Amino acid sequence: MRIKLSLIILAVLVLIIPFAQAQPFISTPSKTPLAGAKVKVTYVTGESFEATLDSEGRLVLTNVPLGKVNVTILEWKGVPIGVTYLVTYKNPVIVCKEIGKLEVKVVGARGQEIKGATVAILYENKVIETGTTDTAGTYMTELPQAKYKVKATYGGKTAEGEVEVVGSETAKITLQLDIFVTLAGWSMTLPEFIGLIILVIVVIIALVIIAYEYSIWRRKKLAKALVTPSTR
Length: 232
Fold this sequence. Notes:
4-stranded antiparallel β-sheet; 2 helices; Immunoglobulin-like; alpha+beta; rod-shaped; 17 strands; 22% helix
């Protein structure tokens, strides 16, 4: 009897509740799609399931009761978010305000910009993103609000620091590598650079001494060869 009653109620709901299609589009405040974000979809009927957004930050939902659905953004880039938004077929766009920007600046010992440095971003000691700095020594990205560790590596030198990203804001961090100058792909510290200069000077002095000693030796050899043996 209870089963029949439940079926009757379900049939009535199907008949009286309108259905529609919803296509949620989720982006950052900068309009970057939340590609690959994990979400939880909950219908007004209580039915729910988890899904992953496509490369355009979209999720196609059909037969949505009342054309309304709650979308909970669970995580993005492996970082939990846990915020819920109401989506309707008339207003399918979600701007996740819990996403902020991160600007990483990598410089050398003289403050010079380091191009091509490898940047690694860690959340709870796990690497969630890597990239390289541009010609201005900068790496830009967007992340869920949280605390992160940032590492920069170039020419065997490494620097790291911590930064907190706040939603809808831009966090900045500057990492300084112990690189005084880069010559022929060799990144050198100040002591290494001074050592190289001293080595070059020593080599030049050694070559000058060798050349001088050789010239003296050659002159003596020529002088001996030009000496005419005396006759009795």
